[in-house]
Amino acid sequence: AQLHYSVPEDREPGFSVGDLAKDLGVDVRSLAARNLRLVSEGGQRHFQVDLAAGVLLLDSRLDREALCGQSPTCSLHLQLVMENPLQLHRVEVDVLDVNDNAPQFPKPEVVLEITEVANPGTRLPLEVAEDPDMGSNSISTYELSPSKHFALSINVRGDGVKMPEIVLEKALDREKVPVHHLTLTALDGGNPVKSGTAKVTIHVLDANDNPPVCEPPISKVLLEENVPVGTLVTKLNVTDLDEGPNGDVEYSFKTSNNAPGKFTKLFSLDARTGEIRTKAPLDYEESSAYEIAVRARDKGSPAMEGHCHLRVELIDINDNSPEIVLTSVSSPVQEDAAPGTVIALIGVKDSDSGDNGQVRLQIAKELPFKLVSSFKEHFSLVTSGPLDREKASGYNITVRAVDSGSPQRATQKTFYLRIADVNDNAPNFSSPFDTAHIQENSLPGTSVFSVSASDPDEGSNAKLSYSIVDNGMQDVPISTYFRIDQDNGTIYTVRALDYEQDKVFQVPVEVKDAGSPALSSTAVVHVFVLDENDNAPSIVYPSVPKGSAFHQAIPALAEPGYLVTKIVAVDADSGHNAWLSYQLQESAEALPFQVERRSGEIRVAQALRESEDSHRLVVEVRDNGTPSLSASVVIVISPEENSVQDFSKSLDLPQASPEDTSLTLYLIISLVSISLVSCVMFGLAAARC
């Protein structure tokens, strides 16, 4: 919003300028909470805000002439900033002139000279009175004390300044009245009227009766600012009808109320030729025009002079770059900020005028922001699309200001906007399924596997904790077998595992961040228990009590190759831990029997003698584990005449070779392995589904 107030320049501090709360439509009680503050665009502070009453107060007495000089208008520009939400309001205060200055002449006494042969109508320019007030309070008119020979004439200069001149109305006679004393009074238009006077003394001279004449007496020149020093502005055209020294003219500057002596620092005048040149750089932004008064004096006796008035108007060129002012920046901004959220308030200024001072702002098109014009020379930077901190944690925003001059001038300012994180990303495991192996009978607390998850958020939104989820897929809660370190995701055993009881576990792991609300995801770790040789072979046949022997009768005439019996054993372990081999323990005497290493078959190795007694054999069954475990059985073989073989009499059967037996064993192992791998794969597929 933009507010407009006015205040006379003579008001005391504490004077109420305007009701801000009412004009802004804001509750007075909310001003303090919204941190209403005043930002002056100038260097001095002239106003203050009463938050309790919601009004704008005068902080110091204003002097319009000191603030704005001779400017026709005098305005002070302020900015009001309120937060929650962030708002910027522009306040323009017009300082009204009061008639607090009386007109004053540069000199209290003015001495003029005029030849006695001067013709009626001769004009004698007078010093212009100065009145710092403006408008109707400035100089309104001049008055001259009554005289038989002189009258007052008032001309209006190009800039509106009234210039008094004394006009000769009746021929002079120096012998009668050599000196005339007059009083010049300057009156302003205030109420009450104020005035200033100057004494005018006119000396009547004899002789040189033709003054230099400037043609035209008032002229105007257009000149570009920043022209090189020494540039010719104009050459005065002055004529004097006299001859000799009375017609030889010398030129000099004549100061006036337009910054007395100021233009003499910028322009030089050739006293002989009347050429006016620049002697310092000219700046349109400092002053757009200069009034130059030139005195043309001849060398007669007495000397006569003419006066030329030159107005130099500068043409603005684009010599000032725009200026960018960051009034306020809201950083950081939440990544879930809605489109249209105000990020920054930006002001722009250009000291040039016209098109040279028209400025437009630009930012990069690929940024998710846009500029919105608030009011003249003020813009708001707002979001134009979604923000994602995980893609861009911040933006270097370059604001570029370009004017409309030719050639264009530009400036830019860069500031960094940080994007604040919100919990919009769930943690992710590196793999939704993992496989781990652990030896059975491992001690409780043994590390099994470490899961790893990541979260692209930051801070507490990326702080992860791990836990095991009991999903009922096991007969016993999975937490009775495993635990997990909630900080690093390492899985440990709670108790020793038994391969013969559970060969594989599915451990569901959940990871959760510390955001609000918290987000989570899960993964499954398949833990395979590796077999250990912790079970000795068990003899299934023959089944005899511990400490007893198995008795087997065979024919007394059994020949080599005769099948006596077969030892059958099993091992609860798996793999190579369950590979069994059979052998006879060594004895003191040579036995006529042998046992097949892989099949456990006991056969007659050599022919029996007719009178041979029974034989005691100790058959040992040993697995292939490390260390190897074994079991044994005692078999007593008794040759008898009428014995009948319990199995098949395989004397005629060819004895199996060791190579055939090994091949059969390897085939069985391969089939079992393929079946086990297939079961595991089916289990994984079912768990994924």
Write the layout of secondary structure elements.
Blueprint: E1 2-8, E2 16-19, H1 20-24, E3 37-40, E4 47-50, E5 55-58, H2 64-68, E6 75-82, E7 87-96, E8 109-115, E9 123-125, E10 139-144, E11 150-156, E12 162-168, E13 179-188, E14 195-205, E15 213-214, E16 218-224, E17 232-235, E18 238-239, E19 249-254, E20 267-269, E21 275-278, E22 289-298, E23 305-315, E24 323-329, E25 333-334, E26 342-349, E27 359-362, E28 369-375, E29 378-383, E30 394-403, E31 410-420, E32 428-429, E33 433-439, E34 447-450, E35 453-454, E36 464-468, E37 482-484, E38 490-493, E39 504-513, E40 520-530, E41 538-541, E42 549-555, E43 563-566, E44 568-570, E45 581-584, E46 593-595, E47 601-604, E48 615-622, E49 630-640, H3 658-688
Parallel strand pairs: 1-7, 8-14, 16-23, 25-31, 33-40, 42-49
Antiparallel strand pairs: 2-5, 3-6, 4-5, 6-7, 9-12, 10-13, 11-12, 13-14, 15-18, 17-21, 19-22, 20-21, 22-23, 24-26, 26-29, 27-30, 28-29, 30-31, 32-35, 34-38, 36-39, 37-38, 39-40, 41-44, 43-47, 45-48, 46-47, 48-49
What does it look like?
It is a single chain. By secondary structure, the protein is mostly beta strands. It folds into six domains: 3-96, Immunoglobulin-like (Sandwich), CATH 2.60.40; 109-205, Cadherins (Immunoglobulin-like, Sandwich); 213-315, Cadherins (Immunoglobulin-like); 323-420, Immunoglobulin-like, CATH 2.60.40; 428-530, Immunoglobulin-like; 538-640, Immunoglobulin-like (Sandwich). The protein contains three helices and 49 strands. Strands 1-7-6-3 form a four-stranded mixed sheet. The longest helix is centred in the C-terminal third of the chain and has 31 residues, at 658-688. The chain is rod-shaped. Residues 646-657 have low confidence and may be disordered.
